[in-house]
Design goal:
Strands 4-3-2-1-5-6-7 form a seven-stranded parallel sheet, sandwiched between helices. The protein is built from eight helices and seven strands; from the N terminus they run αβαβαββαβαβαβαα. By secondary structure, the chain is α/β, with parallel strands linked by helices.
Length: 237
């Protein structure tokens, strides 16, 4: 009995052509991102929910963290949208270092905020995520949803597997993140899916100055510039 011809049929040629041409669009996003961010250094990427209101404690804390980082010489990089992203850009905008927004086109929730000295626009999550990692000296992760969890898990995976250099990964707000960290300790470590040492990749901070101090402590015995070996790792990211 012959196979059903409909199964596994190739897309129409026009569709294949469209997909092939998308490669150039993706290349353009990488080239623009690399060129425009090449002078943005050192930088800290800040993540968090787009749904946080401006009068929330998390918004205020994110803005203060970003301001302190910017005043300390760190460019502040966010997703460019509302909520925590806006707070991060707003705090960075008030400081002396650049405020950077890596904006993404979404059907809802994503509207560029007005506090961006450098504003890039992406259609593809994966090219945008490379920019977050490649140019970051630290990650600061505020309370957020699936997107925030995605960025948090992504950087932990890249560091754990040696695909990027080790940088501070700081969770802010123990009341929000405590349950996840406990689950990692008990369930993930307990089942052997991660090693106890992997948890050392994450720090938990509460106060804005504590975040800044933790980043400086990480680099106390070395400079912010990636070493030769780290530059090679980032080249292969």
């Amino acid at each position: 009995m012959g196979k059903n011809k409909a199964y596994g049929e190739r897309p129409q040629q026009s569709q294949l052509s469209r997909e092939s041409w998308k490669v150039f669009q993706i290349m353009a996003e990488f080239v623009e991102g690399f060129e425009r961010l090449s002078g943005i250094w050192p930088a800290v990427s800040i993540f968090g929910s787009a749904r946080v209101s401006r009068d929330s404690a998390d918004y205020q804390k994110a803005e203060q963290i970003a301001y302190l980082l910017s005043e300390s010489g760190f460019a502040v990089v966010s997703g460019g949208g509302p909520g925590i992203m806006e707070a991060a850009n707003k705090g960075g905008y008030r400081g002396r270092a650049p405020s950077v927004g890596l904006n993404i086109e979404l059907p809802k929730e994503q509207k560029p905020n007005e506090y961006q000295d450098v504003s890039l626009h992406f259609r593809h999550f994966f090219s945008r995520k490379v920019m977050f990692v490649k140019h970051a000296s630290a990650y600061v992760v505020m309370p957020g949803g699936f997107g925030t969890l995605d960025e948090f898990a992504e950087i932990l995976t890249l560091i754990q597997t040696g695909k990027t250099r080790r940088i501070p990964v700081i969770l802010v707000n123990g009341q929000f993140w405590g349950g996840l960290l406990e689950w990692m300790r008990t369930t993930m470590c307990g089942n052997g899916t991660i090693s106890p040492g992997d948890l050392e990749l994450v720090q938990l901070c509460e106060e804005p100055q504590e975040v800044v101090d933790a980043i400086f402590a990480h680099y106390e015995t070395r400079g912010f510039e990636p070493s030769i070996s780290e530059q090679e790792i980032l080249l292969e990211l």
